[in-house]
């Protein structure tokens, strides 16, 4: 089967665009499929700075970050489809895949040697939170509120409660305040905030916005629009403390209750999904369990920084290059990465031992001081102030890994 392209990149966000640029630069015929009306992904609608500090070594707004990537796509004349929906991925064999799309130009089947799947993550909506109450207007995900404000210039409300304290929720708290809204509070189920420490300081503390931890929203009340919410306190085991009910008046609720990797089309072709990350299991070149199908960005694990997603896009492109160059024989026996101690998740989940590898991991519980121990390498790394909201990044050289035989054990004490 003669292929139309060497790489089909599914997703036109930070990971997908960086992957397409890298793939083109190393000589691969590349096309991008994006289901939105424009390239750029979520950063395109972010008016706040904090993007590009690692990738471009500049502090950019999200829109500036996306624009740089889009300009590079245009400069290289990389073809792309927007408003295009992938309806099916068919994996025939090594170097043989078909991606079926529906776009404004009709139905098209694209034959490709490899795939980079970079579809990102979706927000958890109200009906996944277990919050009961009236079906009233004034309830948004934080991302929807951001789109209304930064793309369409529409203010969602005046008195706002944010449920959850992930980074997008913290950033939107500041955004609401800057636009003149009263942010009543942020409410967090766990005893610690869900976002980066810098965002807690810059978005809440600097604007005197209270953060209530160990508290749960149980109900939203209102007739035509949100009028109030009902909250209860929870203990360390997240059990409700009876008699702690409290009503808080507001006209708008913004949900910042987490992101879920969008893996639907990967699941359709039986890619193995990691129960901890909710994304595909990948190796050290971000190849999934299906040969020649790679993944990058928030679809493999939700990243703290967009720069990490772009780095992963480039790594997936390099993986695709070697897969094609070696005629689909780059897959070696995969050594699993075993987790111990205070570790919730890690990416990649398996390695070859033949390449440099960068691990991204998160802990289960916050600790003021921790030690990362890699048993087979007899390597110890000391860390200060680990927390579940902040991703830990570890890089290892192939020279360190070449004598590892069966598995790599990573433990945080």
Topology:
Blueprint: E1 5-10, H1 14-25, E2 30-33, E3 49-51, E4 60-61, H2 62-75, E5 80-81, E6 85-93, E7 96-103, E8 106-117, E9 121-123, E10 132-133, E11 139-141, H3 142-150, E12 159-163, H4 167-178, E13 182-187, H5 197-204, E14 211-212, E15 215-222, E16 226-233, E17 246-249, E18 252-255, E19 259-261, H6 264-268, E20 293-295, H7 306-325, E21 335-341, E22 345-347, E23 350-351, E24 357-362, E25 367-374, E26 379-386, E27 392-396, H8 398-401, E28 408-412
Parallel strand pairs: 1-2, 1-8, 2-5, 8-20, 10-15, 11-18, 12-13, 12-18, 13-14, 21-28
Antiparallel strand pairs: 3-4, 6-7, 7-8, 9-19, 15-16, 16-17, 21-23, 22-24, 24-27, 25-26, 25-28
Helix pairs in contact: 1-2, 1-7, 3-4, 4-5
Can you walk through the features of this model?
The chain has 413 residues and is α/β, with parallel strands linked by helices. It folds into 3 domains: 1-123 and 259-331, FAD/NAD(P)-binding domain (3-Layer(bba) Sandwich); 125-257, FAD/NAD(P)-binding domain (3-Layer(bba) Sandwich); 333-413, Immunoglobulin-like (Sandwich), CATH 2.60.40. The chain has 8 helices and 28 strands. The chain has helices spanning 14-25, 62-75, 142-150, 167-178, 197-204, 264-268, 306-325, 398-401, and strands at residues 5-10, 30-33, 49-51, 60-61, 80-81, 85-93, 96-103, 106-117, 121-123, 132-133, 139-141, 159-163, 182-187, 211-212, 215-222, 226-233, 246-249, 252-255, 259-261, 293-295, 335-341, 345-347, 350-351, 357-362, 367-374, 379-386, 392-396, 408-412. Strands 1, 2, 5, 6, 7, 8 and 20 form a 7-stranded mixed sheet that branches. A 5-stranded parallel sheet has the order 11-18-12-13-14. It has a 5-stranded mixed sheet with strand order 23-21-28-25-26, with no helix packed on it. A hairpin with a 4-residue loop joins β25 and β26 (379-386). α4 (167-178) runs parallel beside α5. The longest helix is centred in the C-terminal third of the chain and has 20 residues, at 306-325. It starts with a strand and ends with a strand.
């Amino acid at each position: 089967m003669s292929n139309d392209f060497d790489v089909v990149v599914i997703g036109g966000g930070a990971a997908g665009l960086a992957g397409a640029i890298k793939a083109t630069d190393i000589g691969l015929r590349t096309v991008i499929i994006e289901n939105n009306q424009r390239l750029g992904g979520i950063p395109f609608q972010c008016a706040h700075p904090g993007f590009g500090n690692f990738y471009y070594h500049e502090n950019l707004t999200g829109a500036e970050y996306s624009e740089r990537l889009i300009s590079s796509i245009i400069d290289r004349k990389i073809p792309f489809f927007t408003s295009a929906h992938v309806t099916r991925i068919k994996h025939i064999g090594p170097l043989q895949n078909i991606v079926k799309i529906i776009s404004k130009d009709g139905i098209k089947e694209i034959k490709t040697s490899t795939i980079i799947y970079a579809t990102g993550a979706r927000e958890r909506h109200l009906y996944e939170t277990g919050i009961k109450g009236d079906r009233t207007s004034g309830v948004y995900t934080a991302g929807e509120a951001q789109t209304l404000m930064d793309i369409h210039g529409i203010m969602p409300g005046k008195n706002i409660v944010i449920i959850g304290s992930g980074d997008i929720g913290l950033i939107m708290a500041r955004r609401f305040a800057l636009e003149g809204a009263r942010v009543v509070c942020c409410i967090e189920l766990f005893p610690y905030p869900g976002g980066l420490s810098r965002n807690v300081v810059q978005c809440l503390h600097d604007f005197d916005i209270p953060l209530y931890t160990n508290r749960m929203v149980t109900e939203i009340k209102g007739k035509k629009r949100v009028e109030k919410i009902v909250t209860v306190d929870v203990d360390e085991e997240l059990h409700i403390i009876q008699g702690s009910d409290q009503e808080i008046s507001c006209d708008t609720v913004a949900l910042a209750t987490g992101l879920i990797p969008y893996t639907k089309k990967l699941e359709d072709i039986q890619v193995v999904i990691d129960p901890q990350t909710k994304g595909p299991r990948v190796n050290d070149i971000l190849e999934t369990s299906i040969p020649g199908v790679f993944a990058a960005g928030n679809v493999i694990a939700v990243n703290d920084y967009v720069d990490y997603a772009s780095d992963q896009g480039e790594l997936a492109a390099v993986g695709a290059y070697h897969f094609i160059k070696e005629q689909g024989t780059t897959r070696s026996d995969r050594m699993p990465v075993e987790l111990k101690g205070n570790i919730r998740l890690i990416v990649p989940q398996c390695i070859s031992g033949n390449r440099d590898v960068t691990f991204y991991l998160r802990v289960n519980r916050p600790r003021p001081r921790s030690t990362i121990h890699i048993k087979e390498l007899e390597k110890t790394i000391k860390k200060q102030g680990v927390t579940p909201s902040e991703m830990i990044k570890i890089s290892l050289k192939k020279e360190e890994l070449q004598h590892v035989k069966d598995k790599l054990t990573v433990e945080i004490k």
